[in-house]
Fold this sequence. Notes:
With 160 residues, this protein is mostly helical. It has helices at 15-31, 34-44, 50-61, 68-75, 79-91, 114-134, 140-159, and strands at 66-67, 95-99, 108-112. Strands 1-3-2 form a three-stranded antiparallel beta sheet. It is globular, with a radius of gyration of 18 Å. Residues 17-155 form the HTH marR-type domain.
Amino acid sequence: MTSPLPGPRPGPAAPSTAELYRSLADLALVVASARTHARLRAQAGVPIDRSSLALLRALAAAPSPYRMGDLAEVLLVQASHVTRQARGLEEAGLVTTVKEPGDDHRVRRITITQNGRDVVARAEATGQLWLTGALHGFTQEQLSVAAAVIQRVTDVYRDE
Length: 160
């Protein structure tokens, strides 16, 4: 059983909180949808599936290679899922894996290649272009507040 999120006990949500929750849930659904990813694949030339792109994004943001298990924690998935994905991405030349020094040769580290970084850069540039169009007319201050709210919510959900 998972622990409840921190904060007040559930009860009737304030209208603004309920509206924000619905909007964030809708956003998560649309951004993660197969249709959105198909559009991204076509416009940005991203040759991989959604979960592989998420893995590459995490590696691109990392200051050093990840152990497979640590990457699985970041992605909120099982280590076996990361290991399977890594094989395909390595065959495509988008990541490299190396054995961890030491006695346990099962432990591997994974890092992104320049080709992998190029895929992430194309996906990010296309996504930012779409977002720029969607947010036309908002002030920098409004965008900063929105980013802060979304980041705080993301951090709370990720930590649970």
